[in-house]
Amino acid sequence: MDVATGEERGTTERVLTLLGLLQQRDVWTGPELAGRLGVTPRTVRRDVERLRALGYPVHAAQGVGGGYRLGPGKDLPPLLLDDEEAIATAVSLLAGASGSGAGGAVAGAGDAALRALTKLDRVLPTRLRHEVRALSGSVESFGGGGTPVDPEVLMMLARACRDQVEAGFGYPSGGEVRRRRVEPYRLVASDRRWYLLAYDLDRDDWRTFRVDRMTGVAARTWRFRPRAAPDAAAYVQESVASRVYPHRARFLVRAPARTVRAQIPASAAVVRERGSGLCEVLSGAGSLDSLLMHMLLLGHDFEVLDPPELGRRCHALARRLLSAGAGFPPGPDEQQASPGTGRDEQSSGG
């Protein structure tokens, strides 16, 4: 039985090596593969049949330029990576997931890199991990981009989300760093930063955390049962765009949502469709005047929906602006309107 097991293991290893060779270049001749594998061409043909039986589309052609070719299939076949390829792939994914390199220029590339990295993490040998960590530290970026995060912290949180285990970390709150104990749910990448959506066990509610502000991140072995969770991307975007600010507001903007989204970063406002040529904007700021200034600079007609005090602030600023320009006549295409009259007063929400 030991001999049979050894033979089966040898055949399996040889077939996997054959698959790896077929993935390296377009065409191999039978003698070339036989030489690389140290077997006869007849054994190569048998191994090719084994790959076909497993669902790999290995094509064979006769004559000059012919040979064995791995064709495209309906499913992506498993990739076989040697040590150097595995290290290079992991380092590249770490760079993309942490916001370095060219990956930050592609929409959704950070999320895709992190998902791929968690899959690679399942099979990456322990002996290669220290090399990946050492090489990832040499990856730099230029030209601005997102706030850098520790790739190992990002990986630890990704594993905790994947394995459904509790995590703990220090996080600034009220001028001091406090220890938080959470059930991590999803990592979300914005145009500038990484965020963790998690259920805060001490506050008994969902919370959003900036990964670059975390300290002493540690994953526990205590597993949890997943809760009914909000849409991660939408929740984090609304948190970042409005909930963290002392003042929040809703506006009805007379412009298509796609137009306004192109003008406002996703981290600065939530833009929702509101019918043909209309959209609703939810945003936050440190002051009511800042909210109005940002909306004015978009160049579209808009109405204040909430809060009422922001509508009243519109009237106060309108009087101030009219007073500042009292010495100049209005332009030919401008309508003269006194403050406190017209459609604005009816729809300002005050």
Automatic annotation (TrEMBL):
Origin superkingdom: Bacteria
Domain HTH deoR-type per the UniProt entry, residue ranges: 11-66
PROSITE patterns noted in UniProt: HTH_DEOR_1 (PS00894), HTH_DEOR_2 (PS51000), WYL (PS52050)
Keywords, ordered alphabetically: DNA-binding, Transcription, Transcription regulation
GO molecular function terms listed in the Swiss-Prot or TrEMBL record: DNA binding; DNA-binding transcription factor activity
Region named Disordered: 325-350
Family matches, as InterPro entries: CBASS_pafABC_assoc_protein (IPR051534), DeoR_HTH (IPR001034), HTH_11 (IPR013196), PafC-like (IPR028349), Tscrpt_reg_HTH_DeoR_CS (IPR018356), WCX_dom (IPR057727), WH-like_DNA-bd_sf (IPR036388), WH_DNA-bd_sf (IPR036390)
Pfam families registered for this protein in UniProt: HTH_11, WCX, WYL
PANTHER family hit by this protein: PROTEIN PAFB, PTHR34580
Protein name from the UniProt record: Predicted DNA-binding transcriptional regulator YafY, contains an HTH and WYL domains
Organism, scientific name: Nonomuraea pusilla
